[in-house]
Each structure stands twice: as C-alpha cells, then as structure tokens.
Amino acid sequence: MPDLTLPTEAKAVSFAAYGEADELRFTDMAVPQPGPGQVLLRVAAAAVNAFDWKLRRGFLQGAFPVTFPHVPGLESAGTVVATGPGADSWRIGDEVFGMTLAAYAEYAVAEAATLAARPADLPVTTAAGLPVAADTAVRALQPLDLKPGEILLIHGAAGAVGTLAVQFAVADGVRVIGTAGERDQEALRELGATPVRYGDGVIDRVRAAAAGDPVAAVLHTSGNGVLADSVALVGGPGRVITIAAAEEAGPLGVAFTGGGTTETAVAGLTRALALHAAGTLSAPVRTTLPLADASTAQRLSEQGGGRGKIVLLP
Ligand SMILES: NC(=O)c1ccc[n+]([C@@H]2O[C@H](COP(=O)([O-])OP(=O)(O)OC[C@H]3O[C@@H](n4cnc5c(N)ncnc54)[C@H](OP(=O)(O)O)[C@@H]3O)[C@@H](O)[C@H]2O)c1
After folding, report:
1. Ligand 1, residues 132, 161, 188, 203: which to mutate, most atoms within 8 A of Cβ?
2. pTM
3. For 82-134, what is each residue's pLDDT tens digit?
4. Could you tell me the domains of the chain?
5. How far apart are the C-alpha atoms of 80 and 77, rounded to whole Å?
6. Which of 19, 14, 109 has the alpha carbon at shortest distance from 68?
C-alpha cells in the first residue's frame, strides 16, 4: 500500500550526462519506493565521496554503468519513513545511518540489513560520513590479519578511510605509522599513529619512524607511485592492499578491494559505534552545504586539500 502521507515527488540532485559539476541538477524527482528488504529514509544528511565525482566525470563507466538521470550518493543518516516487504527490523520513525542508494535526495532507499541505529548523541552530519569509510577500513584491514604489536603503514592516514582505519587498528593494539600532509601531522598523533609526511622520500621517513622494527603490512588509500616501494618495505605483496590504485597494484601482485558486503558494512558501523560509545571516535566533518549546492560540494571534494567529510543537508 502506498503511504499517502509521503509526497510522490521531492527534491533530489541528478546528472543526465557525464561531465563537470555543473551537470548536477537540483530538481523534483519521484520519491523511490522501498523494495523487498529495503526501507525509505527521509534523509537528514548525505555525505560526499570521491566516488561521486569520479562517477559523474565518467571515470567509472566500466565498473559502474549508470542510467541517466542518475542520483549520486552512497551514504546518509535519516529517519525511516516506510518499510518494504521483509524489512521488519526497522520501524517508522527510527533514526538510522548507513549505506544508501541515491543519497543526494530528500528521500532515499537503503538496504535494511546494512543500517545501524543512530545514537541520539551522534550528530547526523557525523553519522552520514561514517558508512563508506568504516566499511572500507574494515574490508581493507581484514585480509592484512594484523596482530597486536605489529606495525601497519597507512598511506593517506588522515583521509576519511585512513582516519577510521587508524582508529580500528590502534584499538586492536597495532602500531600505526600514517602518512599525511603537514596540516594533519598532529591530528594523526592524536589518533595514536606515528605521523610521517607523504611525498618524495616517504619510505625512508617510514623506516626512520619504525626505528628498526619491521613494517608488517601496508594499507594504501592515497598517493601515486608508492606501492612498489611499499611491497619492498614489507618484503612481498601478500600483506599490502590498496583501495585507490588498482592499476598500479595489479602488476605488483598487490590486492585491491573495491566493494563491500552486508557483513563488512555492518562490521564497519559496529566498530565506529563502539568507538563512539567509548567517547573516542574521531570522524571530522569538513563542511556542510545545502543539498542544492551539491555541485559546490563535489568541486570541493575533487579539489581535495581539506580534512573531513563534506556533508549535504536536504
Ligand atoms: N576501493 C574502495 O572501496 C574505496 C572506498 C572508499 C574510498 N576509495 C578511494 O580511496 C581514496 C581515499 O578516500 P577517502 O574518502 O579517504 O578520501 P579523502 O578523505 O579525500 O582523503 C584523502 C587523503 O589522502 C591524502 N593524500 C593526498 N596526497 C597524498 C599522498 N601523496 N600520499 C598520501 N596521502 C595523500 C589527502 O591529504 P591532503 O588533504 O593533504 O591532500 C587526504 O588526507 C579515494 O581515491 C577514494 O575514491 C575507495
């Protein structure tokens, strides 16, 4: 039965051709209906990912073909306003966050099984930016199989994924050396990592930071041309993984992880919520913008150079 209290149309951001950020349009679109196992959310906050502008530019056409008009957005926090068949784990009015389909919208659908309840003291802006980074951090760390006391090098440790990966690894007793720009050195120290500047000579600085102890594994989230030296540093590709350099990884035998499962999505949110409950979660929000300014938000994401998630507010 359609819920007659919900609008049939609402604001959403979409693009109808690959190109620059000005392809993004803020218009009325049909409110999606939740299918089996899905819920409909009234979106309170939707976070921006680099994936969003890479998709809009057409860089990901092979792996992620889209149908135009396409509404971007992978993650949100919001209120459950309708449930599809079998999605009985949530009730109307529940405050949730998680992976979301077409999240740049006032209303968006999510798989019920991938959502988590949002604690009242976790702001919607913070919650909206956790799902992708937490899922990615979990599925990149799992195959590295780190033991307490081992040293993990994280390239791009101050980014959204890196920031959570540092915290998850540190919580497991792993010694983390993280690369970041000058601006983020202190932030990494506060997370419990040993910071090192990225750029020329980075591997020498990592060796110095390890002070003679072996670097057991590498998680690469950012930076070109560092995978070969990372493999040499660890002594082989088996415990090196990238989320961002699939082409560079292939010939080196380095693993690339590109997509999660319900299990990794839930595990990521569970880990983030545990840190939040302990009062130690750090998940910075760089800025918030109205949903109507999604083109500005994607330009900021594409330019880089700021720490924390960019979050859209419908
Ligand atoms: N495969 C997957 O499943 C998956 C999932 C999520 C994200 N990703 C990809 O992973 C990458 C990181 O995502 P994110 O959300 O963490 O991005 P983010 O928040 O924008 O962080 C990127 C970080 O990389 C840093 N950086 C820039 N140049 C670097 C260098 N040469 N060496 C080391 N770090 C450097 C940036 O520092 P500055 O601010 O100083 O520039 C920034 O802190 C993106 O390319 C994204 O598309 C992939």
Report:
1. 161
2. 0.98
3. 999 999 999 999 999 999 999 999 999 999 999 999 999 999 999 999 999 99
4. 9-130+284-313 (3.90.180.10), 134-256 (3.40.50.720)
5. 10
6. 14
